[in-house]
């Protein structure tokens, strides 16, 4: 049986997640890997919003912040279990996205970019300023998820980095599976259609405003889940996680790797997480090299790294 | 019974009447053409009927219901569908997906079902795909199904838009210059296609510059000039109308003068 593109993407991702640890020179790389997966999860949300529906958000770290702080605040003030706190964070993020998205998604292009940027800044300011509740700029501790202990009781002993590598890898795999299902579903086609031509999308019966809002809400839930995983694995969180630099980082990862492709965007998250480590050989010029790579990719591979490389390979094959 | 009734429709751009007091009716299975020189307001009229522009005056009745100013997606739900003069293709999607998107109203479902890939979602996609393949066959694009839409020729894209519009199973179909940029063979194919669709009971409103085609397939012709209706009737009547001849000859004389200059 021939694999569909979706099955092939998931298989590649699963194989990479499972086999990579065999090549890790040290335990430190489990930590790098889980960070990559956590970023990748938020970036898959960006793929749905930007790659499928063609809408830009420079404020998605705001939802990462909501997801992250839910895991710190809900256990402390509501006595909620950390896992349920992550669910609560996702619900709050989705509801916030719904309320914020309604007015701002009427805007297009750079107007939308600036409005969403404003939302992200708002969240990070609230997190930094409401120090009584959030611990302010110094950050706040998050409780232990407790799952690793549970696994140890069942006879599966994992180091902390190994556990988080596995859990965030699994989360990324599920997130990618959902997004790939969406892509080739009626809803996904509606999103990609409005990306291509809003006016034509409307004439085939697509409620464009509602479809955009739906994409915004779904991508916010992805960002929130990413924030929750980050907060729980770090056991500590600061308002930086909701900062605009993180928002821009997420969009850059998606666009660099290929915003239209789930696997491409995860690849982009991988590049931007790993490249700084690899570029340390350039020492002081590390940031300059990173910027240069980003510019060159965008100039010569506008569709993003992975789709362009695959396109080249296909072109050669024929 | 009249499926589409347009009454006294008008709109202004920058204080000038782009369309003024235009009315006509469209019966089931009828082909009505709107003709007129460039800038006569044909596409503007289309945009008002299809809900893209909000008219300043007049009303549009679809199947007995006042649909003036209704959004295009709600008009689509009521059986009105259209194509565009300046192609509006879903560029990064395949030809097949473009037509599948046309089945949105039948295929749409809960987003959660679509994300989880539940059997219901897959069934809806399968049905849309089967329908889309039939339509692609009908417009002669079945062999291009898996190609990216952006890679198609202009004439092929015109037919793709018709297939996508037909996916809605419309009662009223607005075609804005379906034969523009097509060669003689393609024009004839589109000509046959339009006649066949009308024969199934779909009412067609057509804007087209190819006069031979318009005269051949129209039941009724409405002539616009400077945004106003200057004549209407069956093809034979309209082609003899003095004002129509003057408007066209005038336009052609101006165009010739411009070309010389």
UniProtKB/TrEMBL annotation, chain A:
Please verify whether the record's keywords include Oxidoreductase. no
Question: What keywords tag this UniProt record?
Answer: Cell membrane, Membrane, Transmembrane, Transmembrane helix
Which branch of life, at top level? Answer: Bacteria
Q: What are the transmembrane regions?
A: 35-54, 84-101, 110-128, 163-182, 213-232, 252-275, 287-305
Q: How does it sit in the membrane?
A: Multi-pass membrane protein
Main localisation: membrane
UniProt keyword Protein biosynthesis, yes or no: no
Subcellular location as annotated: Cell membrane
**Name of one Pfam family that matches:** BPD_transp_2
Q: What is this protein called?
A: Branched-chain amino acid ABC transporter permease
Question: Species name for this entry?
Answer: Alsobacter ponti
What does the record give as the organism's lineage?
Bacteria, Pseudomonadati, Pseudomonadota, Alphaproteobacteria, Hyphomicrobiales
From TrEMBL, chain B:
Top-level taxon = Bacteria
Coiled-coil positions are none
Which Pfam families does the annotation name? ABC_tran, BCA_ABC_TP_C
Domain called ABC transporter: residue spans: 4-251
Gene Ontology molecular function: any one: ATP binding
Q: Does the keyword Ligase apply?
A: no
Q: Which UniProt keywords apply?
A: ATP-binding, Nucleotide-binding, Transport
The record's section on InterPro entries has: AAA+_ATPase, ABC_AA/LPS_Transport, ABC_transporter-like_ATP-bd, BCA_ABC_TP_C, P-loop_NTPase
- Name-wise, this protein is ABC transporter ATP-binding protein
Q: Which organism is it from?
A: Alsobacter ponti
């Amino acid at each position: 049986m021939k694999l569909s593109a979706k099955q092939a993407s998931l298989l590649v991702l699963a194989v990479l997640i499972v086999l990579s640890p065999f090549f890790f020179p040290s335990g430190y790389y489990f930590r790098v890997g889980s960070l990559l997966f956590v970023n990748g999860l938020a970036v898959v949300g960006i793929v749905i919003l930007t790659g499928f529906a063609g809408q830009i958000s420079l404020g998605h770290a705001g939802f990462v912040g909501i997801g992250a702080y839910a895991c710190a605040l809900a256990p402390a003030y509501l006595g909620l279990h950390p896992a349920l706190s992550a669910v609560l964070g996702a619900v709050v993020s989705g509801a916030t996205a719904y309320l914020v998205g309604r007015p701002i998604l009427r805007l297009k292009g750079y107007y939308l970019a600036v409005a969403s940027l404003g939302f992200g800044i708002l969240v990070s300011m609230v997190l930094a300023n409401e120090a009584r509740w959030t611990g302010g700029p110094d950050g706040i501790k998050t409780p232990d998820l407790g799952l690793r202990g549970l696994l140890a009781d069942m006879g599966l002993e994992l180091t902390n980095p190994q556990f988080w590598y596995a859990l965030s890898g699994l989360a990324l795999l599920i997130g990618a599976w959902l997004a790939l299902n969406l892509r080739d579903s009626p809803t996904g086609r509606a999103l990609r259609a409005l990306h291509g031509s809003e006016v034509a999308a409307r004439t085939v019966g697509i409620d464009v405003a509602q479809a955009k809002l739906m994409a915004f809400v779904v991508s916010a839930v992805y960002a929130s889940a990413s924030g929750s995983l980050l907060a729980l694995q770090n056991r500590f969180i600061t308002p930086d996680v909701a900062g605009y630099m993180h928002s821009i980082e997420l969009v850059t990862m998606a666009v660099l790797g290929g915003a239209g492709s789930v696997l491409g965007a995860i690849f982009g998250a991988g590049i931007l997480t790993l490249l700084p480590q690899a570029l340390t050989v350039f020492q002081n010029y590390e940031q300059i090299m990173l910027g240069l790579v980003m510019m060159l990719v965008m100039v010569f591979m506008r569709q993003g790294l992975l789709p362009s490389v695959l396109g080249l390979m296909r072109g050669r094959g024929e | 019974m009249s499926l589409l009734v347009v009454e006294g429709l008008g709109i202004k751009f920058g204080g000038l009447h782009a369309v003024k007091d235009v009315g006509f009716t469209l019966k089931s299975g009828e082909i009505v053409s709107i003709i007129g020189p460039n800038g006569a307001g044909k596409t503007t009229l289309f945009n008002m009927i299809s809900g893209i522009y909000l008219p300043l005056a007049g009303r549009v009745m679809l199947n007995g219901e006042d649909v003036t100013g209704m959004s295009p997606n709600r008009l689509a739900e009521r059986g009105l569908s259209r194509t565009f003069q300046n192609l509006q293709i879903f560029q990064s999607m395949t030809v097949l997906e473009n037509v599948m998107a046309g089945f949105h109203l039948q295929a749409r479902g809960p987003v959660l079902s679509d994300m989880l890939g539940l059997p219901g979602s897959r069934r809806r996609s399968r049905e849309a795909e089967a329908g889309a393949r039939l339509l692609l066959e009908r417009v002669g694009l079945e062999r291009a199904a898996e190609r990216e839409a952006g890679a198609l020729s202009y004439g092929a894209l015109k037919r793709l838009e018709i297939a996508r519009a037909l996916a809605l199973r419309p009662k009223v179909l607005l075609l804005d210059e379906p034969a523009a940029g097509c060669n003689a063979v393609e024009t004839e194919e589109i000509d046959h296609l339009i006649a066949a669709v009308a024969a199934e009971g779909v009412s067609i409103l057509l804007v087209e510059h190819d006069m031979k085609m318009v005269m051949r397939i129209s039941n009724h012709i409405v002539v616009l000039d400077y945004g106003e209706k200057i004549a209407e009737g069956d093809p034979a009547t309209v082609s003899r109308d003095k004002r129509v001849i003057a408007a066209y000859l005038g336009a052609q004389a101006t165009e010739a003068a411009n070309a010389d200059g």
